[in-house]
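Study this:
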Amino acid sequence: MHLDAISDLLHARAFALGFAAGKHLDAISDLLHARAFALGFAFGGVAFLLAAAVAVASRRRIPDVAGLAFVAAGWLGVRGAWGTTLARASVLLALGTLALGGALVVVLAHRFSVARAHPLLTTAVALVPGAVWLAAVTPLAGSDLSRAILAISTIAIGVGMRDFDAMHGARGAPWLLYAVTTAGVYLAVPDTELARVMLGVALPFVLLSIPRPLCPFGPAGSAALAGMFTWVVVVGGRGRPGSVVGGLATIGLLVAEPLGRHTIGMVTRGVRDPRDRNQDAWLSRAAVAAIAQLIIVLYASRVVAREDFAVTALLITAPLAAVAVIASPGLYPQPHSSKLKHRGRSRRPERSPSRSRS
């Protein structure tokens, strides 16, 4: 009898595992057959080809083309799948205003020393008009509190993504990390209308990060991408506040790394910077960052986002956020500033004797 009981238990367990695996396979099949995903993938493929062509063919660096192309493809995909109900022209204009705010930061930094000295504050102020406009015109965003969260989250995430992009550029594998984030948003929010499109657009853009880093987000692109991300999360999670918290947390390293770098000031010493090393070394570092991003995304989407209440979700998110902020700067080591100054000073005496002899 004991053996029969054990056998029944094992069969029940196997059935449960098979049922869960079947549900996951059904979810993937539903995603791949969804019209919204197909439209996003199609528009994303065209936008990717445009960005890649500009990156390869252009002699002058155009950092924003990929980010702006992604946002345009996402908006067109949502409009094609769901019409003007979700993708109004005013939403596109608000995203464009965010992009202008991100570009304005560069202009201000070149002209004013105050803006150069306080880039994060300058970015936050520049993004306010676009974030407020996006919160005001977003359909189905919910209550005034939800719209306020949308605006504040857009500014905060936009500042983080802009700082990440300014520090690491294409070598930070931003499109790989953003694609992992979009998958997390799809898993986190209960209403996946917009998330399916954004995930479809993001998949072709992974090729802008691997196997070769081609394009960064750009100053304007990072701001617009932050707006699109919060737009999708807030609209998709409007039925369950906890899913909004979990969805926003899927941004992961793109905000945690700048926050940790500025608050903790962690600089990894003795680690070779992958910027000028071989391709295999860079790919391995990008893979480590992607795995870390995946861990954050899975926790945020499968644990945090399942909570019904936002307060509970925030409490569950806190340990993950703390670990990510502390550990993430170590994934992107930077040369020590004192070493750079020492190298700069040591080069000058070497040149002067040669000039005097000549």
The chain is about 75% helix and 0% strand. Residues 14-24, 267-276, 335-358 have pLDDT under 50 and may be disordered. Residues 36-339 form one domain.
